[in-house]
Design brief:
Layout (H helix, E strand, L loop, with lengths): L5 H16 L4 H12 L2 H5 L8 H20 L1 H19 L13 H31 L2 H20 L3 H24 L7 H21 L3 H10 L10 H11 L4 H28 L7 H28 L3 H21 L1
Helix pairs in contact: 1-2, 1-4, 1-13, 2-7, 4-12, 4-13, 5-6, 6-9, 6-10, 6-12, 7-11, 7-14, 8-9, 9-12, 10-11, 11-12, 12-13
């Protein structure tokens, strides 16, 4: 890993930031790209190698990705954390006429939904990350699972239940009402127009969190458990979480939002756990490259989430599924038959 170049770090960092939030598997891309390029890239950037410093590098990049998500969703996380603290207060000193743990607000319920949804993938990651990486972190298998990911995304859209489609319509109606209200409070399209747009986004986020909090804890647990599949290089955490959310009746927009909220604690925890490795001997001689890759990863993640939050309000997972089929299939042909 001492031969990691700034070019390698920059390419991997940018791909990590972008593909972590796009439903196309960041780990799958970070396994495939070095193998497809070959040469020193394939030698330096081998995620399946025992005690791989490359894995510590790309997982360490998750910290920058998580920071970007925290910056974008900071208002939402303040509400969610406030809801969590309020729920603890309700346990310690219940309000008159209420029971302990009788959650009072949508923010309180959403906070515990995020916690419950994070537990399964957290346990699975700690228990199985190493064997999954060694067994399945090989380029040809990453290409196969990328094809599987594409099929999951396309099937998720093709067989979406009517309840999810109806939820799309309700979300669109609330989005229009929030935009109209923000336009009035912002002084119209021209006067304070930028502030009106921002007010609309904030109002839409509040409405979305209320809809999510009404989904229930069992749905949160199912969506969170689906993220375990992303331990397989080539399967997208956000992609499978979105599909699971839609199959549990969430709108596409709300499923994407919940997936992004769930991604924040998961990838932050994964990154923090690997930071000691990068601060130790594995990081000797490459810390400048790691910092460079992290900056690009954070920028890529922030721009990606800004784009995707708007994209999934009206558009589908299908283009990403087709991309995964094409790239995964082409990689299988190249790695298995040509190279």
């Amino acid at each position: 890993m001492s031969h990691l170049t700034y070019l390698e770090a920059g390419v991997v960092g940018l791909i990590q930031g972008v593909s972590e939030l796009f439903p196309v598997s960041s780990l799958g891309h970070n396994v495939l790209i070095p193998a497809l390029i070959g040469g020193s890239w394939a030698q330096d950037l081998n995620v399946a190698k025992a005690e791989s410093p490359y894995l510590a590098f790309i997982v360490g990049l998750h910290v920058a990705t998580a920071i970007a998500l925290l910056i974008y969703f900071w208002r939402d996380w303040i509400r969610i954390i406030g809801g969590f603290l309020a729920s603890l207060g309700q346990f310690i000193a219940p309000a008159p006429g209420t029971r302990r743990w009788q959650l009072q607000s949508s923010d309180e319920r959403l906070a515990w939904m995020v916690i419950l949804a994070t537990i399964p993938v957290g346990i699975a990651g700690l228990a199985f990350e190493h064997p999954f990486r060694v067994l399945f972190g090989k380029p040809i298998l990453a290409a196969v699972f990328l094809v599987v990911n594409g099929l999951i995304l396309i099937a998720g859209e093709r067989f979406r239940p009517p309840s999810s489609v109806e939820a799309d319509q309700r979300a669109a109606s609330e989005r229009q009402l929030a935009a109209a209200g923000a336009m009035v409070s912002g002084g119209g399209r021209h006067a304070g127009g930028h502030q009106a747009i921002r007010n609309a986004e904030i109002a839409q986020a509040v409405h979305a969190d209320r809809r999510l909090s009404a989904a229930g804890y069992s749905e949160a647990l199912i969506v969170g458990s689906s993220q375990i599949l992303a331990l397989l290089a080539g399967i997208s955490r956000d992609g499978v979480a979105m599909v699971a959310g839609m199959f549990r009746g969430l709108s596409r927009e709300d499923a994407a939002r919940f997936a992004f909220l769930l991604a924040t604690p998961v990838i932050l925890a994964a990154g923090v756990l690997k930071i000691p490795d990068l601060m130790g001997h594995l990081g000797n001689g490459i810390r400048g490259e790691v910092l460079f890759g992290s900056v690009l990863s954070g920028i890529g993640a922030y721009l990606s989430v800004r784009f995707l939050v708007r994209y999934f309000q009206t558009r589908t997972l299908t283009p990403f599924g087709i991309y995964c089929l094409v790239v995964g299939g082409a990689s299988i042909i190249y790695l298995g038959l040509i190279k």
